[in-house]
Write a structure and sequence with these properties.
By secondary structure, the chain is of the alpha+beta class. It is built from 19 helices and 17 strands. The protein has helices at residues 6-10, 34-40, 48-51, 57-68, 73-77, 80-87, 92-95, 100-103, 105-113, 131-134, 188-191, 220-227, 229-235, 300-307, 312-316, 376-388, 391-394, 438-443, 463-468, and strands at 24-29, 161-166, 168-169, 179-183, 197-199, 207-212, 237-238, 247-249, 255-256, 260-275, 282-294, 353-354, 357-364, 400-404, 414-419, 457-460, 514-520. The strands form 4 sheets. Strands 1, 2, 6, 8, 10 and 11 form a 6-stranded mixed sheet that branches. The chain has a 6-stranded antiparallel sheet with strand order 12-13-17-14-15-16. The longest helix is centred in the last third of the chain and has 13 residues, at 376-388. Keywords: Signal.
Length: 527
């Protein structure tokens, strides 16, 4: 991503001084990029070099197209602070001393005069330029509620879906959803709480509306505006579910039964570069006709499944939009709360006998908390030694067992990994074609390098199956990029099973109360 200038984010004005031979308007058509400009200038006396005599035309055009041509989201209210506060459920409209009409006047003017003929950019801000890369949110200027950077360690929009849930209105309130629960650790920059849970009765009044987008959707900023600020100004909706943002990517929002779905579409999009004949300054603009509406009868969950059919998004959305009844939501239970009855030999196997084998805990999360060795090389070396400890007595590497009390699918509450081939040499981080970090493989980045089902390993749903070599799992799934989905991604006994993975770097999977154990060889072991 191009590093953004402060003026680009706050004023949306990026200009380059051109040679005098270039003046007037240059029509780029429906695409704004360097290739479109080169096509538009074909046969003209005005060239790229004359238009941008200072050089680096590619960067200049990119900035003009991204930050000058569209309307910047920050322009609508006027500042990052106003946008952030309103998306979290506060701000002048909710908490101000003026009347509602006065507080929404600026946004209403935008709705009346510009909303229907402007492409609205996804919100970015100069205030986040330095903070985000320094704190794991990526090299970008996104607000935390809507960080769509796929490479950000703490990005929040992996499901390409955003939602607002309002709890009050200045006008008639339409209660269209039940609030089930909220994991406050998913939205710490909104509630300033590191870790907590809220469970709701399901009787609270709430109005939820959202949208989903495909990669490359240039109108998603418009749909975000229509989902959030438009709903406040036109329908009076405001206020957030306690502990949650009012509007955010769905991963940060409360688990709810359902939500309405909206969309926006642009037609006749045309981009224009303009050269001031007196100063030579270059600016960018566009024209478009926007329409807004519902999703053709689909609610948000149905629209997500239709838009992203065949992808993980289509199944992962079930965790956040659970259907007609909060009974379908996964709640805290005794095993997820630190109560004495929850700690028993069937959960914490460290140093215990289980299925005729002795076990040692490697690492774990939640109530099994035991972080991997901070020294990755030392942790990998220790794990390799533990694996090899069974070779002499068993003729194989020791079994690895994951116990998961929070997993929602029975087959994934206990998974046994049985190694078949030697391991590649160690190199810290993501697996490659010649190296592997075994600890990272299981905790954060489950990949198929030196780790192919039926070739390098087998998976089983019980220790006894692993010992007898029966009922091996048939479906493997892996990460194909730098995402931090750990063991076993969406692998399953007979087909793909979603959201049962663990990750020691990301949240989102159900295996956040789980532990890995390794078999300890013993002369008294009974098969």
């Amino acid at each position: 991503m191009t590093k953004l200038s402060i003026s680009a984010l706050t004023m949306a004005l990026l200009i380059r001084r051109s040679d005098a031979v270039c003046e007037g308007d240059i029509s780029l058509g429906s695409t704004c990029d360097l290739a479109a400009l080169e096509t538009a200038l074909s046969g003209s006396t005005c060239t790229i070099d004359l238009l941008f005599p200072d050089g680096d035309a590619a960067t200049a055009v990119q900035e003009l197209c991204e930050y000058d041509a569209p309307t910047q989201f920050v322009k609508i209210q006027g500042s990052y602070q106003l946008d952030q506060r309103s998306m979290n459920g506060g701000g002048d409209v909710k908490d101000g001393e003026n009347t509602f009409d006065i507080d929404v006047a600026r946004v209403k003017r935008f709705i009346d005069n510009e909303m229907d003929d402007q492409v609205i950019a996804w919100p970015e801000y100069a205030q986040k330029e330095e903070y985000n890369p320094a704190n794991g949110y990526g090299d970008n200027g996104y607000m935390p509620n809507f960080n769509i950077d796929p490479d950000a360690e703490k990005g929040s929009c992996k499901l390409n879906t955003a939602m607002c849930c309002f709890v009050e209105s200045q006008f008639d309130f339409v209660d269209n959803s039940d609030i089930c629960r909220h994991d406050l650790s998913k939205s710490p920059q909104s509630n300033h709480i590191k870790s907590a849970w809220s469970v709701f009765s399901g009787d609270e009044s709430s109005h939820c509306v959202g949208f989903t987008w495909e990669d490359g959707d240039i109108y998603k900023g418009n749909t975000l505006f229509y989902t959030s600020l438009y709903q406040t100004v036109v329908n009076g909706y405001m206020g957030n579910v306690p502990g949650a943002p009012m509007c955010a990517c769905v991963e940060q929002m409360p688990v709810v039964t359902k939500a309405d779905c909206v969309t926006s579409t642009g037609t006749g999009l045309q981009y224009t570069l303009s050269v001031d004949k007196d100063t030579g300054d270059v600016s960018a603009s566009h024209s478009v006709a926007m329409t807004y509406g519902d999703c053709g009868g689909n609610d948000l969950k149905a629209q997500v499944k239709a838009t992203h059919a065949g992808s993980d998004i289509a199944t992962d959305i079930d965790e956040y939009l659970v259907g007609d009844d909060c009974a379908n939501a996964v709640y805290l239970n005794d095993e997820q709360l630190l109560v004495p009855s929850a700690i028993n030999s069937l959960m914490n196997l460290d140093g215990a006998e289980y299925e005729g084998r002795s076990w040692k805990q490697l690492f774990g999360e939640g109530i099994f908390f035991l972080p991997p060795d901070y020294d990755a090389a030392a942790g990998d070396a220790e794990m390799r030694a533990d694996l090899d400890a069974c070779v002499a007595s068993e003729g194989r590497q020791c079994l690895i067992l994951r116990k998961c009390t929070s997993c929602t699918v029975e087959s994934h509450k206990e998974i046994v990994y049985k190694r078949l081939t030697p391991w590649f040499p160690f190199q810290e981080g993501i697996s490659t074609d010649t190296t592997i970090d075994i600890v990272n493989l299981f905790t954060n980045q489950w990949r198929n390098n030196n780790n192919v089902l039926h070739v390098d390993y087998e998976l089983y749903s019980s220790v006894q199956d692993a010992l007898t070599g029966t009922d091996e799992w048939e479906q493997a799934d892996y990460n194909s990029n730098n995402h931090k989905y750990g063991f076993p991604r969406n692998s399953g006994p007979t087909g793909y099973v979603g959201n049962q993975w663990n990750s020691y770097a990301w949240s989102g999977g159900h295996a956040d109360q789980s532990a890995f154990y390794i078999e300890v060889p013993s002369e008294t072991t009974v098969v």
